Amino acid sequence: EDLISPITSYVFLRFRFFNQDPVTRRSGTPLRFFFHLKQVDIFINELSVDTLLYLVGKLGLMGPYAVRNSAIFPNCCKIENNSRLALVCHFQNNGDAIVPGQQSTSVFLRNFVFDDNRTHDQSLVSISLFKEGAFSTAPINIPLHESGIFAWRTVASSLKDSRRFSGPFVVVKVSQNSVEGLSLSVQPLLRIYNKSDFPLELRFQRPQNENEEAAVVTVRSGDMVDESTGVLDAMNLSGGSKKALMSLALGNFMLSIRPEMSEHSNLSHATLFQWSEDITGEKAVRISGVIEKLNYNIRKAFSIDSMKSSFSSLSCPVSVDGQHVTDLYFLIHTLGRDVPLQPTNGTRVSGRSASVALQLQREIFIYPTVQVYNFLQTDIHVLLTDSKPENTRDDNFGLIGKEATITSGSSAYFYVNPAMFNFSVTLISYGSKSKAANSGDWAKRMQKQTARAQFLDLELEFVPGKFHSSLRLLRQEKGLLEVE
User: Fold this and answer.
1) In angstroms, what is the C-alpha Rg of the chain?
2) Residues 284-336: tens digit of each pLDDT
3) Which long-range contacts (CB under 8 A, 24 or more apart) does 385-394 make?
4) Ranges of each domain in the chain
5) Neighbours of 174 (CB within 10 A)
6) Spatial distance between the Cα atoms of 250 and 234, rounded to a whole number of angstroms
7) Which of 20, 94, 151, 254 is 20 to 30 A from 189 (CA-CA)?
8) Rounded alpha-carbon distances, angstroms, from residue 29 to 11, 16, 19, 25, 33
9) Beta partners for residue 128, in sequence order
10) CA distance linking residue 331 with residue 333, whole number of Å
11) Do 126 and 138 form a contact (C-beta atoms < 8 A)?
12) This protein's superkingdom (predicted)?
């Protein structure tokens, strides 16, 4: 709305159906679109004129127009702030831009042209992170004339007193495109996402310091925590918890998880979720079973070829009235890449003139192990157990995270052992239950194949034998086992 007022427009569509051609076996459907608008009000300024001329040239509109080249997009810089802190960017002769955490914006760089004759000082942007009323980091100078990705260790200053301390790492990626212009992405060194249904407690400890006090952070379902907020929150702590949060910056930490107790505080019995085993991320634990046999369509989160991807699983024991009843399993997906590390004086060193150390950047996703989709026309009740159905406890406490009623067209998450589980479905409208299927049998079927399969199709038998349904097992971008 800063460039153009809202437009009142009308779109009409006319189409006509023909019978199928007896020779080509194809049918034609001619379409006609009609577009009408009354008036367009454009605020005349340098950017709006460039935008209008660019659209006229690209759309090939009628009129005496000729756009030989456009500086609109090359002079536009998209800023992505992927941290939880606010980001301040200062462009030489172009003012400042403040981008809140987890948001992005675009800045028009007036009179900014990539030219070999232009001094590098004129194509710099200085960035800093801050938390209002608490702290800010010293500016880091980023050259925009050269694409690349680099990591810096920041120096933070308290806004309440004169304290200075080591701040979080920031990973900065600069890319150029003749059509889309500049892109500046600021990311933390470590991000941990909670993709499960449960609010999770994350416990961080330093290796070889298990008796030391740990730091515990709660992450809601669908939320994430990153290294930048963790390191700066440590300034108000002391002892082992402070050291544990500071270790996030170096990647030298152990992580364990458990569901938050308040999620099941309404149960009539005392339910206790215990901490999972620790994971360091240095060495992935291989996952066995049918999930390992299926080919995984990797999600290129970092959009680079050197990305490392690994999977492991964590289990949280569940006790009711002091007795162990089951385990909740979570799939841990770790993505990482090595990023050149720059000195802390706020000035980048050319990689061609000096050898640069590498710092590992990671994203850790915490998923359920199985997701079941219901594409039937009736609601279903799905049960996944680590043992045979006849050995299931009568009080159903052992089915926490193992059963769900799924309406038609929806899905549900399950927290079962991905290496071995039993699967059964009940058609609620008909009271018909399927025979239990074992994931071990599925894995044996896939062992006969010479290469990893994209999916596995199976038949599900119901009792009585009036109904039949098909199952498809696959792994999509998330990496967890999906059952359709």
Assistant:
1) 28
2) 456 767 776 676 665 544 444 567 888 888 999 998 888 888 899 999 988 88
3) 385/416, 385/421, 385/422, 386/326, 386/327, 386/416, 386/417, 386/420, 386/421, 386/422, 387/422, 388/422, 388/436, 389/422, 389/424, 389/436, 393/325
4) 9-59, 76-188, 197-335, 370-483
5) 20
6) 14
7) 94
8) 19, 6, 10, 13, 13
9) 88
10) 6
11) no
12) Eukaryota
- Fill in the amino acid letter for 226: D
Convert the pLDDT of each residue in 404-434 to its tens digit: 999 988 999 999 988 888 888 998 988 888 8
Strand partners, 347: 141
Measured CA to CA in angstroms, residue 151 lies from 170, 240, 249, 406 at distances of: 6, 26, 11, 45
CA angle 77/73/36 to nearest 5° reads 125
Please tell me what DSSP assigns to residue 444.
Answer: H
User: Which residues, other chains included, contact 98 with Cβ-Cβ below 8 Å and sequence gap of 6+?
Assistant: 86, 87, 88, 89
Predicted confidence (pLDDT) per residue in 56-74, tens digit: 666 666 555 554 555 555 6
Structure tokens at 85: 């802190």
DSSP string, 18-80: -PPPTTT------EEEEEEES---B--SHHHHHHHHHHHHHHT-SSS---S---TTTTEEEEE
